[in-house]
Design a protein that fits this description.
The protein is 44% helix and 16% strand. With 262 residues, the protein is of the alpha/beta class. Strands 1-2-3-5-7-10 form a six-stranded mixed β-sheet. Strands 4-6-8-9 form a four-stranded mixed β-sheet. Strand 1 and strand 2 (17-22) form a beta hairpin. Helix 4 (113-120) crosses helix 5. The longest helix is centred in the first third of the chain and has 17 residues, at 33-49. It is globular, with a radius of gyration of 19 Å. Bound molecules: hexanoyl-coenzyme A.
Length: 262
């Protein structure tokens, strides 16, 4: 997995937790096309071909940035025709097909595409030093990796408008308050906390975790009626897995479950 990558690092532990680090600290981990290609292909590989990886943590190298956005130097001279014809930045949407949980461990600036990448993840944990923002407006563009959609769903119209129209940054504490991040922890504890959450998820049945994740995402993407129907079918289908029998038997027998489908 590791060898061919130059802009990211990956590591898979024996606890089911994979850590993917965006590794361009000299450019505050700006997301150029190489980073996009490598993050996407590593996530797809970990998702489909690496059973030992059950949860993926994404973070940034260094202590300044998760990612300070799409790479402005790479985009500066792009014409409209090129942006359109090459579907500029569209590759990131491939992450939507990852079924294993993605945790963003936001260790510093999460700006523009960096904030959008963090929001593509399923759980967003922040260091207390992190800062979030959608500064695209000051560059003469708008968010293009889902920011107008995911931020609005995460924090509501008024806050999303304020951030997207002013380009102003918010603190980790503010991000937690408005529901963008689930928690802020001291910077030195961020990776330990992220691992703790990931390990806890990794103890559960992999297909059941994937079903739960998919149902929550449907809540963001579809209406209540469709969502409830979808959830019910996924809930019923859990009863086709040994893991449901094991999980419930373990509860009744007052022991820890030993899920087979991990
Ligand atoms: C390319 C970047 C970069 C970026 C930082 N760098 N952000 N390079 N793309 N997004 C580079 C700087 O050019 C500099 O390189 C080095 O990283 C260190 O950055 P400094 O600015 O010197 O650091 P500092 O003074 O601490 O300021 C940190 C910062 C600032 C506030 C985060 O770097 C900044 O404002 N960055 C841009 C943030 C942004 O606008 N992001 C949105 C991008 S657009 P050198 O070579 O000088 O050392 C986007 C679009 C999404 O994401 C999709 C829609 C199209």
């Amino acid at each position: 997995l590791q060898q061919s990558f130059t802009s990211i690092e990956t590591e898979v532990g024996d606890d089911g937790v994979a850590v993917l680090t965006i590794d361009r600290p000299q450019a505050l981990n700006a997301l150029n096309s190489k980073v996009m290609q490598e993050v996407v292909s590593a996530c797809l590989f970990l998702d489909r071909n690496h059973p030992a990886a059950r949860v993926i943590i994404i973070t940034g190298a260094g202590d300044k940035a998760f990612a300070a956005g799409a790479d402005i130097k790479e985009m500066a001279a792009v014409s409209y025709a090129e942006a359109y014809n090459t579907s500029l930045l569209n590759g990131w949407e491939t992450l939507r097909s990852v079924r294993k949980p993605l945790i963003a461990a936001v260790n510093g600036y999460a700006l523009g595409g960096g904030c959008e990448l963090a929001m593509m993840c399923d759980i967003l944990l922040a260091s207390d030093k992190a800062q979030f923002g959608q500064p695209e407006i000051s560059l003469g563009v708008i968010p293009g990796m889902g920011g107008t959609q995911r931020l609005t769903r995460a924090v509501g119209k008024s806050r999303a408008m304020e951030m997207i129209l002013t380009g102003a940054r918010i603190s980790a504490q503010e991000a937690v308050k408005i529901g963008l991040a689930s928690r802020a922890v001291p910077a030195a504890e961020l990776m330990d906390e992220a691992r703790k959450v990931a390990k806890r998820i990794a103890e559960h049945s992999t297909p059941v975790v994937a079903k739960a994740k998919e149902c929550v995402l449907v809540a963001q993407e579809q209406g209540l009626n469709e969502g409830l129907r979808f959830e019910k079918r996924e809930f019923w289908s859990c009863f086709a897995l040994d893991d449901q029998k094991e999980g419930m038997a373990a509860f009744v027998q007052k022991r820890k479950p030993d899920f087979k489908n991990k």
